[in-house]
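User: Round two. Same drill as before: sequence, then structure, for each protein.

Assistant: Same drill it is. First protein:
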Amino acid sequence: MKTVGYVLRMKGYDIHSIEPEASMYDAIEKMADKGVGALLVIDSGEFVGIITERDYARKVILRGRSSKETAVREIMTTNVLYVSPNYSIEECMELMTVKHIRHLPVMSSNKLVGVISQGDLVKAIISDQKSVIKRLENYILENAKLT
């Protein structure tokens, strides 16, 4: 069973973050530049929350707020669920499905070490399935030669 640690080794340990005093405009601009749907909010080196495109759509746009005048701290999620590198992919998928979230920060020894998304988990599952299929094909071919 593959783990979050495996997923991070595949995708990398990059952490895209923003400060809580930054504007939502800056946050959305950074998400677009990095090609991500969420930023971790870091204040003086401490992980304090997460901000997502969904937060922006629901808490800024739909409420008629200004992107340039709304600070990240005003709409970020502060009670953030996180996992450790030893969580299984299946545990994370279940947690994300039940809690309706798309991103999970990864903590190890109270230190932020990465973030995973549903897309990262799906890629890992597909990669694992391709590997299983390839092994089964090789097994079938080898056994067909023996008969």
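Second protein:
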Amino acid sequence: MNFAVIFLCLLFGAIVGFEFGKYMERRRIREAMKGISQRIKEAAEKVQILVEKQQEQLVSVLGKLGVVGFDTRYYKTSNDIPAINKKEELDLCSRMITEMTGKGAMDSEIGRVVRYSMVVIDAEKLNLDWMKAKQDEGIDLLKAKYLRPLDGDNVVRGPLGGPIVWMSKAKEETKDGERT
């Protein structure tokens, strides 16, 4: 009989110990999850603060460029306009912004190119007069002022019609067939 009682006590103790172990494990998991969720919450708050700062900076930059409040629908037209080579025009805008930034152009000048690129992007879809936008924003003047010619070009006309001479990057062949 002692053996049966001892065996039952051991069995009961093992079951209680096993259940207590499961309880303790669940408790440790809950505490760990609380810690993790608290750290996630703190990280989310930090990210939110950073996003708000970036949005403020973006609005500030867009304000300096004169893009805030600009509506491309101003250029909406019912007239037929020439087809636009969107890729070519956007490449031009990209080149201009890069060159202008490198040469220290004013924010308002860069903003003119940005506004023009916005019209170009929506020109086909919204039937926008991209040529009027190009004229209004003075893209040709900015191009003459800031954009260096591509290889092979020698002369670019300035804002007043005078030539701006650039050294050509195109290499000339000599009589020997070598490039200089």
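Confidence is low (pLDDT under 50) at residues 165-180.

User: Perfect.
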